[in-house]
From TrEMBL:
InterPro entries: Legum_prodom, Legumain_prodom_sf, Peptidase_C13
Lineage: Eukaryota, Metazoa, Spiralia, Lophotrochozoa, Mollusca
Secretion signal span: 1-23
Keywords of the record: Signal
Domain Legumain prodomain: 351-448
The name this protein goes by in its record: Legumain isoform X1
Assigned protein family: Belongs to the peptidase C13 family.
Length: 460
């Protein structure tokens, strides 16, 4: 009799588990934060991710894709209407649905979409928009690719999403019971700073990032025909792994190990990180990257891998031109085009040289300006030296000051446009360190004083 009761209990448990899987939904939010042709990689990875989610049976109504959508028809694109994620790869643009495009791709819209705020989206963009309308039984997968800086992930035109705002939104979702479990993949420089010391471990959220708090992510896949980098080490690693894997068997931790290996390229090393509830990494990928009842293991037809483990083919000013840091992609792109410019006219080569000289000047001036700014802000030092501020790797403790400093600097120095020149963002760590140790008024006054002296701040 006991045996019969035991068997019956197992049957009932199996039924409950089936109901649980079928009652919950899978949601995916995909974000490409860049615009402009030299940022090809961002929309290439996001379009690949969109197709991967669709191929894994997640219905289109449960996928939200935010991308500027200027890449496929950019005048520099030699094949109009075409986006690839590896050289000679399949065209990913057809069927790559983008729910928010152009000026709608902002941190404010992203946060409303993530938290399921339909009315908030409508107020921001003036129309109905798709949101992550998830509930307590649902699994949510978020992937974001673009440039980043300490404590920030960037959207088009150097509009920053701050780590505090992202984590506040995640905590809000937890309070409102808007998910069962959630996974985030963030592919940007300094991406670890979006979560380290901020993301709680007890709200059923697990995240991986392509880098730690203070280092760059890296590019891959230079396309000699398109003259652009069409992928990232971290982004390409996970989408191609998902395309090939049996998602019912492969775990989140196993995929994390795949990404770690891909990012460990000689001369271009970043260190992917894990945050949040690490016990979740034993779960299988199917929980987040597929609709369990529709997914069938197999190789995705969109998949065509490239070897992104090549050593440096060229270098310029210490930059690896095969796998450059994400924030160095404008310099690396122009330098590589110049090196491979045998078929270009002399006039075009001179244009590239002039563009490269200007970017190197901006890089130099941004570094010099930051040193002067730190010196001015520390006229009344508070226990730290200028070297401490310039070299420290602190987390954001005074987010109000940091946000205000970034806003004032951007307004006062449009010549160092950090949207156009992402390499200048490397100096933002000094802003964080200053705000953590100096009065906000001292920091703001220093920005006013120093930017007035630099001609490049007024040069557009």
């Amino acid at each position: 009799m006991a045996l019969r009761h035991g068997a019956l209990s197992l049957v009932l448990l199996a039924v409950v588990l089936v109901v649980r899987v079928e009652s919950g939904k899978n949601w995916a939010l995909i974000v490409a934060g860049s615009k402009d042709y030299y940022n090809y990689f961002s929309q290439a990875v996001s379009c690949h991710a969109y197709h991967t989610m669709r191929n894994n049976s997640i219905p289109p109504e449960n996928i939200v894709h935010m991308a500027y959508d200027d890449l496929a028809h950019d005048p520099e694109n030699p094949v109009q209407g075409n986006i690839v994620n590896v050289p000679e790869g399949p065209n990913l643009y057809p069927g790559c649905k983008m729910d928010y495009r152009k000026k709608e791709v902002t941190p404010e819209v992203f946060l409303k979409v993530l938290t399921g705020d339909k009315e908030g989206v409508k107020k921001l963009i003036g129309r109905e928009g798709k949101v992550v309308d998830s509930g307590p039984d649902d699994h949510v997968f978020v992937t974001m690719v673009d440039h980043g800086g300490p404590g920030v992930f960037y959207f088009p035109d150097f509009v920053e999403l701050h780590n505090t705002d992202l984590n506040n939104a995640l905590k809000q979702m937890h309070r409102e019971n808007r998910y069962k479990e959630m996974v985030l993949y963030v592919d940007s420089c300094n991406s670890g700073s979006m979560f380290e010391g901020i993301l709680p471990k007890n709200i059923n959220i697990y995240s991986t990032t392509c880098a730690n708090t203070h280092e760059s992510g890296y590019m891959c896949c230079w396309d000699e025909f398109r003259l652009s980098f069409v992928g990232t080490q971290y982004g390409n690693a996970w989408v191609y792994d998902t395309d090939k894997a049996n998602l019912h068997k492969k775990t989140l931790y196993q995929q994390y190990e795949v990404m770690k290996k891909a990012c460990n390229v000689s001369g271009s090393v970043s260190h992917p990180q894990q945050y949040g509830n690490l016990s979740m990494n034993s779960q299988v990928l199917a929980q987040y990257q597929s609709k369990a009842e529709g997914y069938q293991p197999g190789v995705c037809l969109n998949t065509l891998e490239a070897d992104n483990t090549l050593g440096s083919k060229f270098t310029f000013a210490g930059i690896d031109l095969n796998n450059p840091a994400i924030d160095m992609v404008p310099i690396a792109t122009v330098a590589r085009r110049l090196i491979e410019s045998r078929d270009l006219s002399g006039e075009k080569r001179e244009e590239l040289k002039a563009e490269l000289r200007h970017m190197m000047l901006v890089k130099e001036k941004a570094e010099s300006l930051t040193k002067d700014l730190v010196k001015a802000a520390m006229s009344s030092p508070r226990g730290l030296t200028e070297i401490d501020i310039l070299t420290g790797k602190e987390r954001v403790f005074n987010s109000e000051c940091y946000k205000a400093a970034l806003g004032l600097f951007s307004a006062r120095c449009p010549g160092i446009n950090m949207g156009r020149y992402p390499f200048a963002r490397r100096n933002l760590q000094a802003f964080i360190n200053l705000c953590n140790h100096q009065r906000q008024t001292d920091v703001m006054n220093a920005i006013m004083e120093v930017t007035e002296k630099y001609g490049i701040c007024r040069a557009l």
